[in-house]
Structure formats: structure tokens, C-alpha cells
Amino acid sequence: MSNVQPILKWAGGKRKLAPLITKVVIEEIPTTKHYVEPFFGGGAVYFELYKNNLIKSAEINDIVPQLVNFYKTVSKTSEVEKIYSAIVNKLNYFNSLNQLEKRKKYFEYLRKSFNNIWSQDNTEFEKHSSPPDYLGLEESLKSSVLLYVINKTCFNGLFRVNSKGEFNVPLGSYEKVQIPNLNDLIYTSEALSKANIHFGDYERVLKKSLQKKDSFVYLDPPYVANSKTSDFTSYSKDKFKDTTNNEDSEHIRLAENFEFMVNSGAKIILSNHNNSKALSIFVEGKKNIFVYGIDVTKTIGRVKGSKNASSELLISSFEIASLKDKRID
Ligand SMILES: C[S@@+](CC[C@H](N)C(=O)[O-])C[C@H]1O[C@@H](n2cnc3c(N)ncnc32)[C@H](O)[C@@H]1O
To answer: Are residue 265 and residue 172 in the same domain, yes or no?
Structure first.
């Protein structure tokens, strides 16, 4: 089995936690046949499960159209070589620029080209505007190449958009950006081709998962903030935020959906911060759940090279024997 890794950097990525979740699947729910990940992001858990030969069929979903389009395009194995050579051309050119001003100018040109593809003025976009097939193949290929390159060259690999949906992260500080390996891209493509890839709000994919026996659902939403300033929710222009006066309304909606899934007998795990607000929204007064506190080291969204340990919750609909020392309910 290939050593496939998440292809993009993504805020809240679960590379560190993925081996633990994989162990849980192997030990606690070995009959799993169908994997569902409604908040896919960089898909660290999916790729780890795939690497361990645990993906037989899957539904993956996210609310960021550019990201979903990227995965759908990269999953077309016949297009991978074309995508690869365009990525290598752009990264080699980026690496050849040794003045910061020139790099910045090139990065901004790439970012603008990417935003133009997704702008409402793009007539191609209009033609294919019904989700999830926003763009035709040529535009999808261009967008995917640009998304990969800006993800590797922007600040911390963040994907953040403004209220118009335009990607607005500045250039990061990199001496040389690593040139990917064609085989790695082929493995990623093969891994993604096992999944049905969806765009939109998580609820649809979540409820549908109840129709398939032996499903396992992993929910990794934007977290309840630890503090007012640490709340990164700007993945999409709609954000994971309230449209009402209640700033927690999206978390509460998710907690209700989670409770519904637990009571329907789903095998499901939800990640979140281990703080009093998350405990009050997702845990207090809820039945038939098992709650574990896990320490993980985070690197994204911080000053380069710095790390900090963060305590996270894993809230599960089934008991996890290997985590019994970490149980906090
Ligand atoms: C914490 S990240 C997931 C990270 C992922 N587990 C990884 O390993 O990279 C949360 C993801 O949820 C997506 N998201 C936010 N609101 C959503 C919604 N209402 N429905 C579906 N996805 C949503 C964001 O775009 C983001 O990619």
C-alpha cells in the first residue's frame, strides 16, 4: 500500500490524530465497510485509513467549492500527469525567483488568476454553475494547479476567503518550495477515486450515512473557540458562524445532529476543543456518549517552527477501550 499523505496543508488538519482514529477503527469497529467524512478539509484521517487499506467505499464532503473541485479533479487519474507537469512548472519558476519582490508579484498573479476563475464574472463558471460541477474540465484543471501552488507558497498553507469568497492569504516565507513527486500525486488520485466527493453543508451527507450499514462517521468541524481571538472559521465565505444573534448557533446545530446520529445507532466520533463551552454544547446532558480528552501538538496557524500542545475532545457513540485512561465523562 502506498504511503499516501494529505496533499494540501489545511487549518485544523488531523495528521497527528489520524493514526489514533485508525487504531480505533481497527480495534473497535473492524466491520466498518463505509467511511463518511462530512468536514473533509485536508482529509488526514481519510488518507491514513486508505493507507491502512481500510477504505472500501466512502462519502467525503466540504463546504469550500474550490477544495471540492480540486479533489474531484485530482481524483480523475487520467488527468494527473497534466496537473503534475503544470504544478512543477509553476513551482520551479517560483523557486527560481530569488528576490522577495519578484516572488510576491508572481504569487499575487497566481492568486488573482485563481480568484478570477472563481469570480462571478467568469462565464465558464456560469455555464457549469450547479454544484458540484462548477467549472468545465479545463478550468477545473487550471484551478486545481493554482490551488496546489498557492497552498504551498502562501502563509502557513492557510485557506481563507473574504466576504466575496476571494482567497486572500498573503505569500508565506519559504526558501525553496518542495517539488512534489509524480507517484505521490498518482497515489492521492487513486485514494480519492475510491470516494464519492460532495460539496455543501454537512447535514445531507451525515443523514444519508444512516442508510448504509457498517458506516463509520468522523466529524471534524470548525472548533468552538478557546478564546475570542483564536476562532479560525473563515474557510468559506459562509463561515461556520451564526446567522442569528446566537454566536454558538452553528455548534448547537451540529450538537443536535450529533445527538440524532448517536440515538440512531451510528458509529460516530466528533472532535472538538476541550474547553468548557464545547463540553456544555456537546456533552452536558447528552446520553449514550463516551468522552475522551487527548493532547495533540499543533503547528499550523502559529509562528513558523513553534508548537503548542492543545487538549482536544473525542466524543464517541461507542466505548474506546484503548482510551479508557483518557475518559473524562
Ligand atoms: C477542522 S477542518 C477539517 C480538517 C480535516 N479533518 C483535516 O484533516 O484537514 C473543518 C472543515 O469543515 C469545513 N466546513 C465548515 N463548515 C462546513 C459545513 N457547514 N458543512 C461542511 N463543511 C464545512 C471547512 O471548510 C473545513 O475544511
So the answer is: no
